[in-house]
Amino acid sequence: AQRDSRWGLGFTAAYTFSKTIQELTPFRNHYDRALDRSITNFDQPHIFTFSYVYELPFGRGKRFSLPAFWDKIAGGWKLSGVHNYSSGTPISISTANALGSLIFNPGNTVDVVSNQFAGPRGPGKFDPARDLWLNRAAFAAPAPYQFGNAPRYINYRIPVRKYESMAALKEFTWSERFRLQFRAESVNPVNRVVFGGPNSNFDSGLFGRISSAAGGRRVQFGLKLYY
Question: How many angstroms separate the most distant Cα atoms in the chain?
């Protein structure tokens, strides 16, 4: 959806609902290719994107006029932003491949013994120092010389993706030729914590633990001269 307003606001919004399934190669078992049919590593059922540009109603030619001195400081500003919110991508549970030396298959997965994939957590928000994202008890090592029954990617995901970026800009003009644009930009302006994916190696003592996160708030300033 897209909308422009006489109040100086223009915005676009888009929502996508999808599901991506694929037979992922190379196959673990060429006699049972359905074993490797699963959602893909980039499957995200929900993606919402919202962007906007808003001309503040202050200054020359705007709804609220300002004295000449204040017009140079506070007039003619624009605010813009891009917001993106989406489902996390699915997780692949790996384990040691005891079959590789026998049938030369590319890898193996675990057995799924429960659909309670969420790991134990304390009260309040998820705390990576205390909580686990994956529940080890929901999985088991496959029997010797057997294929695990887990799909390549289980339908349990890394944390939701939340990203914002915002900017404020103002243009200064002199004569008919020169125009100077000042920009103040911020990525992750609210300093949101976006956790990475968990350790999904079933043989690891850190299985289920999240040890990474996206970078914090970043602010930058810029000048651009048009002539």
Answer: 83
Return the half-sphere exposure (C-beta side, CA atoms, 13 A cut-off) of residue 81.
16
Q: Computed from CA positions of residues 215, 41, 129, 119, in that sequence, does the dihedral angle turn out positive or negative? A: positive
Please state the pTM of the whole predicted model: 0.82
Q: Is the dihedral of CA 31, 32, 38, 41 positive or negative?
A: negative
Q: Residue 201 corresponds to which tokens in the numbers above? A: 């190696």
The tokens of 136 are what?
A: 């080890």
- CB count in 10 Å sphere of residue 110: 21
Q: With 0-12 CB in 10 A as exposed, 13-18 as middle and 19+ as buried, what is 171?
A: middle
Q: How far is CA 71 from the centre of its chain?
A: 39
Per residue in 105-149, pLDDT (tens digit) is 667 889 999 999 999 999 999 999 999 999 999 999 998 888 889
Counting DSSP H helices and E strands in the chain, the numbers are 2, 13
For 76, 168, 173, 220, the CA distances from 182, given in Å and listed in that order, are 11, 8, 11, 11
pLDDT digits (tens, 9 = 90+) for 22-39: 987 777 777 788 888 899
φ, ψ of residue 36 to 5 degrees: the values are: -105, 20
Peptide bond into 26 cis (omega under 30): yes
Q: Where are the beta strands (DSSP E) in the chain?
A: 2-4, 9-17, 21-23, 37-39, 46-55, 77-86, 90-91, 111-112, 139-140, 154-157, 161-174, 178-187, 218-226
